[in-house]
Amino acid sequence: MSGHTITVPAGEVRKLVGLEVDFVQLYRGPSTGIFVSINSESSFVWFVQGIGYQRGAASPINTVFFENRGSVSAELQIITGNGAMIDSRGAVFGTTTQAKPASANALADVAVAATTTVQVAAATATRVAVILSNLVANGSPVRYGDGAATGQGAELPVGASVSLPTVGAVDVYNPSGTSVSIGVTEVLD
To answer: 3-class SS at 102?
Structure first.
């Protein structure tokens, strides 16, 4: 596993080359405006702290392009490595120990009515992460994040789950015309 620091001026693209790795993850950077493309400068997707790209069965990651769509220069701390992706609080940038979570608290599914935003997890100081699942029975993707809304937040496809390393509140926006249910589990200290 390696750590990289890269500065991306507003409105520009910068790249890391010669990597030959299985994953890339944003360890520290702005919460908006940064987009990433893997191995080609063509398909940029939103890139936020704690979320990464795992190559799976695809070719190794050789080059990563970072685009700053924000209005100010951004310094990014990036983790790259081989094998499975790690929690964004790993030891690359100075943290030397990490406590294991005490429990995984499965909460009741949260209903999100058509075209509405609902807070699915309140801010909790003892939380290590919150796991969201867009249940298979749902008919459409949802958006998630702090302040998720039309055109805001990362997309979670039907049947997918995501682990968010946050103590902050998490919202889900349902853009579809029918109600959906979101599975929620909190990983607690």
So the answer is: coil
Fold (topology level) of 103-188: Jelly Rolls (2.60.120)
> Whole-model pTM?
0.50
Strands, sheet with 161-164, edge to edge from the N-terminal-most edge strand: 103-112, 180-188, 127-134, 161-164
Task: For residues 87 and 81, give the distance between their C-alpha atoms in angstroms, rounded to a whole number.
Answer: 12
* Cα 152-154-160 angle, rounded to 5 deg: 140
Summarised one tens digit per residue, pLDDT across range 61-107 is 899 999 999 899 999 888 888 876 655 444 444 444 445 667 888 88
Classified by CATH at the fold level, domain 2-89 comes out as Jelly Rolls (2.60.120)
CA separation for the pair 55, 84 (Å, rounded) = 9
